Each structure stands twice: as structure tokens, then as C-alpha cells.
Amino acid sequence: MPTLSRRTVVDLPTPALRGARRGPQDAPQAPEALATGPITRLVDRHGRTVRDLRLSVTDRCNLRCTYCMPAQGLQWLPTPDLLTVAELARLARLAVEHLGVERVRLTGGEPLLRRDLEEVVAAVAGLRTRSGAPVDVGLTTNGLGLDKRAAGLREAGLGRVNISLDSLDPVEYAAVTRRDRLDDVLRGIAAAQEVGLSPVKVNAVAVAGALEERAPRLLAQCLRSGWQLRFIEHMPLGPRETWRPQEVVGRDEVLRVLEQAGFELAAIGRPDRRPATLWRVAAGEGAYGAYPGGSVGIISSVTAPFCSDCDRTRVTADGRLMTCLFSSQETDLRAPMRQGASDEEIMRIWAQTTWGKPLAHGTDEPWHTPDGFERPSRTMSAIGG
Q: Could you count the other beta carbons within 10 Å of the beta carbon of residue 49?
């Protein structure tokens, strides 16, 4: 397994963005056009164009999921280090109105822990893409407290939610999250449906041990409830000791478990280059009762990565730009903004950094095995999902 890499924060100079690289770990030198010409899109040297912005609003979380963070939690960012509503709105505006982004997903940590989340949503939801269409605004959340805020978030312009839910068994849920809060999550999901946050997608990390019972039960309930279930392969983004490549439950194993439980599946593919590969599920009846037809997805970042058509860019809650979830390199956007950089200067930094996006999983080396990941120094909650 590779050694944990030190995080490199790249501080591109503003306003002058030309000049040679300052060190071997700094962003690759972009073409001259990115230093002098108009910036109209975010494209990397492998031909991938950014359409999706993952914008983290906090690194704090009120769960302690075993695959995500240690039981005692992490050292949270000081409040002054977090991007303000105005800074988040500015980055979203530049991305959507000038750089070709069509989808913005607000992430954390747990975004609901920000009291001003509705303000952030309203600022982003008011944007229009270059084609004039409303921007697609989503939220990734653990659902705790969503029952109290779903209506306000919907009114602010939120379109849809992804909610983490690994098990429908209260004991299992408490063991995974280290918190006895399953009923709160289910209330949050119900509230999201009631106010029209659609589709409600349920994210479940596929981990070894209880998959045979947990996965079929969860899928049957999601089909009955109208939730869209997505299984996610366990990625090396939590405490180092919690991830071993040989223990990853891959896509084939998830499909085997579901088919063995009686679900009739037919492959659909990956519509619109979204992360999940989808399967159509025929209506049926099994050990967990009758269920209507629907679909199920698997995000197989480990065993069948989709890096070749990745269209995402990420900004952490403290304003660091990451071109890949597994990147050990970060580019500071917050400091230039607070030092008075113009919109053009911020976009040029963004475009230059994007040009140097690695080929796959944080590295330009050919990817062959699940242990070929570059390991970021931040955990998932500090990066933004």
C-alpha cells in the first residue's frame, strides 16, 4: 500500500499567473493560452471538461462513521478559515456563469451543520448556466435535522438530496455511525419527499460482513419508498487502518448478493456520465416483501473506475481547489479572493490548475489495481463528497 502523501497547497500568484513552476509538486505548466487568452471553460490535458462542481461548506459532522473518521472525530477547521456565504456564492457564480459548470452539489462534512445553508442554496440556485438553464443544485447529507429544514431548503431553491443510509437495522446503523440516530434519518428522508426534493437518492457504502442481509433489505425498502439506492465501494478516504484493498466489496459481489436474493437485474449503464452505473430492477417479491420495479446503482470507484470521463472539480470548505478526490495537491482559492483578486484572476487559477488534473486517482501513472490510489492527507469529510 502506498505511503500517505503530504498535502501540497499550491498558491498560484495573482494577478500575474505566468512563469515557471516553483517546485516539482506544483501545478503543471499550462499552455500559454491559459495565461493570456479568455477563460471560458475548465478542461484538462487529457481532454476532460468540467461540468460538475462539488462545493464543501463545512468539514464538521455529527456522525462518526467507521469508514470515514475516528471515533473521537477530527480537528475541525476554525470558523474564520471557512469560506463565507459570499465567497461560496462567488465561486459558484464563476463556475456556472463563466466556466461551463451545469451542476453544483453542496457537501461536507455535514452541510446541515451550517446555520446559513439556506443562504448558500439561495445564492447558488439563482444562477443560470451559459445556455440560460437553471443550475442543478443538489445536497449530500446524512439526513440528521433535515426534517426541520427540508421545507426551507426547498424554498431556497434546492432541487434534490443524496442521503447516507448504510442500514435499516437500528443496531447496525448505530454500529456503523457510532450514533443511535436511524429514526432521525428516516424522518429527514420523509420530509425531503414531502416537500418535493426529488429524486431522493440513498447512498450506502458496501462493506464486508453483513452485505447478504443488509443490501437486499435496503434495496427492497428503497424500491417501495421511491428512493433511488446507490451502493458505493469503500474508498481509501477514512482512517488509514480502516481500508485494505483485499477487503473492498466490489460491484460484482454486490450484484451477486442482490441476484441471489431474488432481484431480477438488467444493465442500463451510466447515463449522462454520472458516477453510478445503473441496473433496472423488475418488480417482484422476496424475503423482505413485495416491491415495485425501479433501479439500483453502484458507484465502483475502486474496481471499475470512471476516471476517463470524470467531469468534476472540488472546492474544500476552506477554499482549496482539488481536481481529484485523491489528489495530494491543493490550490488555494481563498487567499487570492481575500487579497482582492479579480474574477478573471480566480478563473485563470482555476483553469490552470484544472489543466494539470492527474490521469486517475491522484496520479498520472497507469492504474491497474485497487492499491494504486494516491492517498490524500485529508479524509473524505474534510475534502467534501
A: 13
Question: pLDDT 10s per residue in the chain (385 long)?
Answer: 333 333 455 444 433 332 333 333 334 445 666 777 788 999 999 999 999 999 999 999 999 988 878 888 778 999 999 999 999 999 999 999 999 999 999 999 999 999 999 999 999 999 999 999 999 999 999 999 999 999 999 999 999 999 999 999 999 999 999 999 999 999 999 999 999 998 999 999 988 878 888 999 999 999 999 999 999 987 766 555 555 666 677 899 999 999 999 999 999 998 877 889 999 999 999 999 999 999 999 998 878 778 888 999 999 999 999 998 878 789 999 999 999 999 999 999 999 999 999 887 666 665 444 455 566 666 666 777 6
Per-domain residue ranges for the chain?
8-14+30-383
**Does the reported pTM lie above 0.70?**
yes
Q: CB neighbours of 71 closer than 8 A, spacing ≥ 6?
A: 64, 178
Domain 8-14+30-383, CATH among 3.90.70.10, 3.30.300.10, 1.10.10.10, 3.20.20.70: 3.20.20.70
- Spell out the residues 6+ positions from residue 55 whose beta carbon is closer than 8 angstroms to its own: 88, 91, 92, 104, 105, 106, 107, 124, 314, 315, 384
